[in-house]
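Please decode residue identities from the backbone states below.
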């Protein structure tokens, strides 16, 4: 399923870029994120607890940053296993455009699920994925804008 959107963030692009590469900020903004640990400059390990319809699951997985064009864009990819609930994997292409003192963050993502999760139906999974993406980027926007105001 494909998801896309954009956020206007009240901070310069270099601040937004730094936040997109800060594991602590990402951990705070990812819905249900329990842990996010940096393993290298481009690899992170994560555990996330999510609920999709009647299924709740803890996912453990890897997150990789690639196609890095600092401070303009990158691809963030992830794959996680949720035990009996199944698996989830996907990626998001993130692009930053500076507009005055603000940054336009555009994202385009694709995700796939398998196992028990896949039995829930694409409509429920799609709407939940869209909601989680919007929740992440709204929280990210608020966190970055708040930090920028504190500086």
């Amino acid at each position: 399923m494909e998801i896309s959107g954009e956020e206007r963030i009240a901070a310069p692009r270099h601040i937004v870029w730094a936040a997109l590469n800060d594991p602590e900020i990402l951990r705070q903004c990812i819905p249900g994120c329990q842990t996010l640990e940096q393993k290298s400059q481009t690899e992170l390990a994560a555990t996330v607890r999510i609920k999709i319809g009647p299924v709740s699951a803890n996912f453990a997985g890897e997150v990789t940053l690639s196609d890095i064009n600092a401070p303009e864009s990158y691809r963030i990819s992830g794959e996680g296993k949720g035990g009996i609930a199944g698996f989830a994997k996907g990626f998001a292409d993130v692009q930053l455009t500076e507009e005055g003192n603000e940054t336009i963050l555009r994202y385009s993502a694709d995700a796939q699920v398998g196992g028990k999760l896949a039995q829930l139906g694409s409509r429920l999974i799609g709407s939940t994925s869209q909601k989680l993406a919007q929740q992440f980027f709204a929280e990210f926007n608020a966190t970055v804008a708040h930090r920028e105001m504190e500086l």
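Observation: The longest strand covers residues 55-69.
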